[in-house]
Automatic annotation (TrEMBL):
<protein>
    <recommendedName>
        <fullName>CHAT domain-containing protein</fullName>
    </recommendedName>
</protein>
<feature type="domain" description="CHAT">
    <location>
        <begin position="680"/>
        <end position="965"/>
    </location>
</feature>
<dbReference type="InterPro" id="IPR011990">
    <property type="entry name" value="TPR-like_helical_dom_sf"/>
</dbReference>
<dbReference type="InterPro" id="IPR019734">
    <property type="entry name" value="TPR_rpt"/>
</dbReference>
<dbReference type="Pfam" id="PF12770">
    <property type="entry name" value="CHAT"/>
</dbReference>
<feature type="repeat" description="TPR">
    <location>
        <begin position="107"/>
        <end position="140"/>
    </location>
</feature>
<dbReference type="InterPro" id="IPR024983">
    <property type="entry name" value="CHAT_dom"/>
</dbReference>
<keyword id="KW-0802">TPR repeat</keyword>
Length: 966
C-alpha cells in the first residue's frame, strides 16, 4: 500500500472511530466503543509523526480511552488517554492551530484521573494545561467557552480536595465567563453545558458557605438548562438529575417538604429516561434518588422511604466495579441507610450491615481524598450505635478511632471535621476517657473559626454560631472536671464572643510589627480595614438572569472579594507568625496574658453546662495560682433557664417598646416585685454568695480603701440575668452584692485588655443626643430634660447637643468621631428576628448594630446608652453578646453604660444627673485613686440614688442599668 492509500485509510479509520464513539454515546453499547478504539489505534499506527493529521488522530483516540474509563473505571484506560493526548500536544506540526483543543482534552483526562485517585498533582496539572488552553483560544469563541468550563471544573475539583474558597470562586467565575461567551442563541448545546456546570458549582459552594442565594440561583440555572434542552436529548437526563440534587440540598437547609418531594420526582423522571445499557449513567441517578429517599425518611419517618433507599443503593452498587469513582460514595449512603433503619426498627442485622458497608467505603477511598473524612465520620457513627446497643468495647474503640481520623483529615470540609471532633469528644466524655475527650475538644475549638469564617458576613457567622450552641461550655466543663482550670478559662475566652473577637483582632494596634516589618504591618492594616467593612455589607444579590443583571454580578464580585481578603489575611498572619518574636502574633491568649484583665479587680467567668456549673475567678493576687475555682453545686442549666423565663414573664411586652416605660406583666401567684425578689435571691444563694465567700479576703484585699470591684463574664442563660443586683431583699438581715462590691460586665476578657480610657484633667468633649419626638416613635419628653441636666456638669465649649431633627444618622456618626464621650437619650430597639438590625432610633432612621461594627473610633472614652434594651442580647446567642453595648465596645469605647431592659422615661434624668455629677466632680480624683474605674463607680452611686428614690423593691426601675468594660 502506498503512502497515499495509507493516509486515506487512516483518515477513514479515524472517521469510522468517531462515528462508532458517537453511537456509543447515544445507545450505550460498549462494543461500539471497543471497535472505535481499535480503528482509531490503527489510524494512529498508520500515520507518521510529521503528518498534519497525526495530532488529531491521537486526540480522538485519547477521547475514546476517556469514555471507556468513564464506563468501566479501568485505570489503564485513563493512563493511556493521558499518554496519547500528551503525544498530540507534543507534536510540532501544523496542527498547532488546534492546540487549544488538544490541551483541553489532555486537561479533562487529568481531571478524570484525579477524580479516581485524588492525586493533587493531577488536578494541578489539569489547571495548568487548561489555563494554557484558555489563553490559546480565540476570544469570543466557543472553544474558549469550552475550555473555561473545563477549567472551572478543575478548580471545583481542587476545592473539593483542599477546601480553599478561592478555588470554588474561581470555578464559578470561569463558568460565568463561559456562559456569557456562548448564549443559547449562539450554540444551545454548549450554553446548556456551561450553565449546567455553573449550577453544579453554585450548589457545591452553597454546601460550604450556606449562602441561600447560591442554591436558589443553582435551581434557577438548572431549570433554565432543562427548558433549553429538547426532549430525547441524551444530556437531558443529567440536567433533570442536577435539579433534583439542588432541591435535595435546599431541603436539608430549609426543611421544606415540597423540595424533597420535587427532588425524588425529578430523580425518578431521570431514571425513567435512561436508555438500556447505560449502566454507569444509571448508577449516578440511582445514587441520587437513594440519597433523596434517605433524606425524606429522616423528615417523615415513612419506612417505605428507607426501604426504597436501601433497595436503589444496592442496585447502584451492583452496576459498577470497585474501581468506579462513585462506588465508595454509594456504599457510604447504603451504610447510612442501614444505620438509620436500625435506629427506627432495631433489627441488629441492619447495624451490622451498616458497619460492613461503611468500612468498605473507607477501604475503597484513598488517603487524601476529599470524601475520606466523611466516610470515616459515618463509620464512627455506625460503630458508636453498635457500641450503645451491644456494649462492645471494640466498637467503642473503633468509633473513637474513626472519629479522630475524620477530625484530623485536613482534606475534609470544616463542618465534617467539626462534627467528627464533637461526637468524638461527647463519646469520650460519656465513657470515662477524659484525656481523649480533651484532645477532641481541642480539635472542636480549632475548627470553630473555620466554620465561623472571617470571609463571610457577620450575619452569616452568627447563623453558624447559633448552630454550634453550647459546645464551648461543654469543653470547659470537661477541662474543669479534668482539673485543668487554665485550659477551661482559655477555651471559654477563645470560644465566646467570637465575632466581636474577630472585629477586635482587625482593630488591634500593630506597633511592634510597624517597628520591625512596616511593609507587613501596612498590608495587614489595609486588609483588616477592608475585611471589617466587607463583613457588615448589606448588599443582597439579585436572583435575575446572570447574563443580564448587573446587581448579581456586583454581589458575586463583592462576595469573592470578601473571601479573597480573608484568605490574604490568613496568609499574612501565617507569614508574620513565621518571623522571630512574632510566633504568637494575634493567637488566642494564654492565662499568663489573660491575667492582666484582672488588674482592676477579680474577673468572674461563670460556666453553665448540663454536666456542671462553675465559676473561675481570675485575679492578680497570686501569680502562681491566678485562677480560683468555685463549684456552683446548687446551680444548674435548668435553674438558669427557669430564672430567665421568670424574668421575661415580668418584662413581658413588645420587643420594640414604644417608649422607655416598662410593661409589667400580671402574674397570678406573685406580684412582679415578689417574683423579681425571688429571682435575685436565687442568684445570690446559688451563684453570687458562694463566689463571694471564696474571694472575700485575699483576692479583694489589695484594692485599697475603695469598695472592691468585680467584672462578670457569664455564659448560657445566666448571661441575661442581673448578677450585679443579686441579693436577699425584704428581710432584716439583707445581703446584697451591691453593698459590698461595684460590678461591671464584659463580653470577653480581651475587652479588658484593651488600652484603658485616657481621661483628661480638663473637661472632655461630649456629644449629647436627645430624641423627644422621633418620627414614627412614641414621644420621649424626658430625653430633653436628661440633656439639660447633663449640660449643667459639662463645659459649654466642649459639649455638642444634637436634639430632635439635628440628630441624623450621618451627623451622629460624624460627631462620634470627634468626641470622647457620647450620651444617647433615645429609643433603643432590640430586633429579636435579626440582632444585627438592633438600633438607636434617630430622627431620619436607625443607627444599627451592623453600622457600629464598621466603625472604629480612636478617641472614644465613654458611651452612655440611655435607651431601652441596649444590653439585652440575643437569647439564641448567649455567648456572643449581640447587643448595642457590645457594638459600642467594638466601635472603640472602652467604657459603656447600658440597660438590660426598658427604662422609665422619668427615671433616666435622675440617673444621668447623679452619674455625671459624680464622674465630673471627681475628675482626676476617683475613689481609691483608681482612675480606670471612674465610670463603674459613678454608675454605682447613680443607681443607688435612683434605688432610694423609687424604692428598693421597685427592681424593674433600677436594676437594668449596667456598666460594660473598663
Amino acid at each position: 500500500m502506498d503512502a497515499f492509500d495509507e493516509d486515506a485509510k487512516a483518515y477513514y479509520l479515524c472517521d469510522l472511530g468517531t462515528s462508532l464513539s458517537a453511537r456509543f454515546e447515544q445507545l450505550g453499547d460498549l462494543s461500539d466503543l471497543e471497535k472505535a478504539i481499535a480503528v482509531q489505534q490503527e489510524a494512529v499506527d498508520l500515520t507518521d509523526d510529521d503528518h498534519p493529521e497525526k495530532a488529531g488522530y491521537l486526540s480522538h483516540l485519547g477521547l475514546s480511552f476517556q469514555r471507556r474509563f468513564g464506563q468501566l473505571g479501568d485505570l489503564s484506560d485513563i493512563d493511556q488517554a493521558i499518554v496519547v493526548l500528551q503525544q498530540a500536544v507534543n507534536l510540532d506540526s501544523d496542527a498547532y492551530d488546534n492546540m487549544a483543543n488538544w490541551l483541553h482534552n489532555l486537561g479533562v483526562s487529568y481531571n478524570n484521573r484525579f477524580r479516581r485517585l485524588a492525586e493533587l498533582s493531577d488536578v494541578e496539572e489539569a489547571i495548568n494545561v487548561l489555563q494554557q488552553a484558555v489563553n490559546l483560544s480565540p476570544e469570543d469563541s466557543t472553544t474558549k467557552a469550552v475550555c473555561l468550563n473545563s477549567l472551572g471544573n478543575s478548580f471545583a475539583h481542587r476545592f473539593g480536595q483542599l477546601g480553599e474558597i478561592s478555588d470554588i470562586d474561581n470555578a464559578i467565575d470561569a463558568m460565568e465567563q463561559a456562559a456569557n461567551l456562548v448564549p443559547p442563541s449562539v450554540n444551545r448545546a454548549i450554553a446548556c453545558k456551561n450553565l449546567s456546570s455553573l449550577g453544579n458549582c453554585l450548589q457545591i459552594r452553597f454546601e460550604r458557605l450556606r449562602e441561600l442565594n447560591d442554591i436558589d440561583k443553582a435551581i434557577m440555572v438548572h431549570q433554565q438548562v432543562i427548558d433549553l434542552t429538547p426532549d430525547g436529548h441524551p444530556a437531558k437526563v443529567g440536567h433533570i438529575s442536577n435539579l433534583g440534587v439542588d432541591f435535595s440540598t435546599r431541603f436539608l437547609h430549609l426543611g421544606k417538604l415540597s423540595d424533597i418531594d420535587k427532588a425524588i420526582a425529578l430523580h425518578q423522571q431521570a431514571i425513567n429516561l435512561i436508555p438500556n445499557g447505560h449502566y454507569a449513567f444509571k448508577f449516578q441517578h440511582l445514587q441520587n434518588i437513594g440519597i433523596a429517599f434517605l433524606n425524606r425518611f429522616e423528615q417523615l419517618g415513612d419506612v417505605n422511604d428507607i426501604d426504597n433507599s436501601i433497595k436503589v443503593m444496592q442496585q447502584a452498587i451492583n452496576l459498577v466495579p470497585d474501581g468506579h469513582p462513585g462506588k465508595a460514595s454509594s456504599l457510604n449512603t447504603l451504610g447510612e441507610s442501614f444505620h438509620i433503619r436500625f435506629q427506627s426498627l432495631h433489627d441488629l442485622s441492619d447495624i451490622n450491615n451498616a458497619v460492613m458497608r461503611l468500612q468498605q467505603a473507607v477501604t475503597l477511598t484513598p488517603d487524601g481524598h476529599a470524601d475520606k473524612g466523611l466516610y470515616l465520620y459515618t463509620l464512627g457513627l455506625g460503630f458508636q450505635t453498635r457500641f450503645e446497643q451491644l456494649s462492645e468495647v471494640e466498637s467503642l474503640a473503633s468509633a473513637i478511632n474513626a472519629y479522630s481520623q475524620a477530625a484530623e483529615n485536613a482534606s475534609s470540609s470544616p463542618l465534617i471535621r467539626y462534627s467528627a471532633a464533637l461526637d468524638w469528644a461527647v463519646l469520650c466524655s460519656a465513657n470515662g476517657t477524659p484525656s481523649s475527650a480533651l484532645e477532641a475538644y481541642h480539635m472542636v475549638l480549632e475548627m470553630i473559626p473555620q466554620r465561623v469564617w472571617l470571609g463571610q458576613t457577620v450575619s452569616h457567622r452568627y447563623k453558624e454560631l447559633s448552630n454550634i450552641g453550647n459546645v464551648v461550655n461543654a469543653a470547659a466543663a470537661m477541662a474543669i472536671s479534668a482539673g485543668n482550670l487554665a485550659l477551661a478559662l482559655e477555651w471559654l475566652e477563645e470560644g465566646r464572643g467570637i465575632v466581636w473577637g474577630q472585629i477586635l483582632q482587625l482593630q488591634t494596634p500593630l506597633d511592634d510589627l510597624w517597628a520591625k516589618y512596616p511593609d507587613l504591618a501596612r498590608n495587614l492594616q489595609k486588609v483588616s480595614i477592608a475585611l471589617q467593612t466587607a463583613g457588615t455589607s448589606t448588599i443582597r444579590p439579585s436572583l435575575q438572569n446572570i447574563d443580564l443583571e448587573r446587581p448579581q454580578l456586583t454581589a458575586e464580585q463583592e462576595g469573592q472579594t470578601h473571601r479573597a481578603l480573608a484568605a490574604e489575611h490568613r496568609m499574612l498572619l501565617e507569614q508574620i507568625r513565621s518571623l522571630d518574636g512574632f510566633e504568637n502574633f494575634l493567637q488566642p491568649k494564654k492565662v499568663s496574658q489573660l491575667v492582666d484583665a484582672s488588674t482592676d479587680g477579680p474577673v468572674v467567668i461563670i460556666n453553665v453546662h448540663a454536666s456542671r456549673c462553675d465559676a473561675l475567678v481570675l485575679h492578680c493576687y497570686n501569680p502562681l495560682e491566678p485562677i480560683l475555682h468555685v463549684p456552683l453545686q446548687e446551680f444548674s442549666v435548668e435553674q438558669a433557664e427557669r430564672l430567665y423565663k421568670q424574668l421575661n414573664v415580668i418584662l413581658r411586652g413588645p420587643s420594640t417598646s414604644d417608649n422607655r416605660k416598662l410593661m409589667i406583666a400580671a402574674i397570678d401567684t406573685q406580684t412582679p416585685g415578689e417574683l423579681f425578689q425571688s429571682i435575685l435571691g436565687s442568684l445570690w444563694s446559688c451563684v453570687v454568695q458562694p463566689i463571694m465567700l471564696k474571694i472575700n479576703g485575699p483576692v479583694t484585699s489589695g484594692l485599697g480603701d475603695c469598695m472592691p470591684h468585680i467584672t462578670w463574664c457569664a455564659t448560657g442563660p445566666l448571661a441575661f440575668l442581673p448578677l450585679h443586683a443579686a441579693g436577699i431583699y425584704g428581710t432584716e438581715e439583707q445581703m446584697k452584692i451591691s453593698d459590698s462590691v461595684v460590678s461591671s460586665y464584659s463580653p470577653t476578657l480581651n475587652n479588658l485588655l484593651r488600652p484603658p480610657p485616657t481621661y483628661m484633667e480638663n473637661s472632655p468633649k461630649v456629644l449629647i443626643v436627645s430624641q423627644p419626638n422621633t418620627p414614627g416613635q412614641h414621644p420621649l419628653y424626658g430625653t430633653l430634660t436628661e440633656a439639660v441636666v447633663i449640660m449643667k456638669h459639662t463645659s459649654a465649649e466642649n459639649t455638642i447637643h444634637l436634639n430632635a431633627s439635628q440628630a441624623t444618622v450621618t451627623k451622629v456618626l460624624d460627631e462620634m468621631n470627634q468626641n470622647e464621650w457620647i450620651h444617647l437619650a433615645c429609643h433603643g430597639i432590640q430586633n429579636t428576628h435579626d440582632s444585627l438590625r438592633s438600633a438607636f432610633a434617630l430622627h431620619d432612621g436607625h443607627l444599627e448594630l451592623q453600622s457600629l461594627m464598621r466603625t472604629s473610633l480612636k478617641n472614644a472614652q465613654l458611651a452612655f446608652l440611655s435607651a431601652c434594651q441596649t444590653a439585652t442580647g440575643d437569647e439564641n446567642l448567649p455567648e456572643e453578646a449581640v447587643h448595642l453595648a457590645a457594638g459600642m465596645l467594638a466601635a472603640g469605647f472602652p467604657s459603656v453604660v447600658a440597660t438590660m431592659w426598658s427604662i422609665e422615661d422619668k427615671d433616666a434624668p435622675i440617673v444621668a444627673e447623679a452619674f455625671y455629677s459624680s464622674l465630673l466632680r471627681n475628675m482626676g480624683n476617683s475613689e481609691g485613686n483608681n482612675e480606670r474605674l471612674r465610670v463603674a463607680y459613678a454608675l454605682h452611686k447613680a443607681v443607688k440614688q435612683l434605688c432610694e428614690k423609687v424604692g428598693e423593691k421597685n427592681f424593674v426601675k433600677w436594676v437594668p442599668y449596667v456598666h460594660f468594660g473598663l
